[in-house]
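Usage

Read records sequentially. Each one opens with the input sequence:
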Amino acid sequence: MNKKIRTDAVDHLFDGFLSLKDKEECYSFFEDLCTVNELLSLSQRFEVAAMLRDHKTYLEIAEKTGASTATISRVNRSLNYGNDGYELVFGRMDAK
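and closes with the structure output:
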């Protein structure tokens, strides 16, 4: 894990995330926290990760999401060499 992001401020932010109870609360909080473009970028990366996990090609992903090949490559690197955060979330989502 990247020790540079482990700060009291990030801990406080994550505590805020963990206090949210449903999608409506997430919408309220994230619309206040993020710009529209930031939120769309995060959701785009998450969609790219899901498509990579489903073995879609870079071309298919770029066409469906509008993500650049650089973004797709970055997400792919996280999936393959990251901290397994995507897999943790996708695994829990799959279990539902």
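Summary fields computed downstream for this record:
- Residues 36-53 form the longest helix (18 residues).
- The two ends are 27 Å apart (CA to CA).
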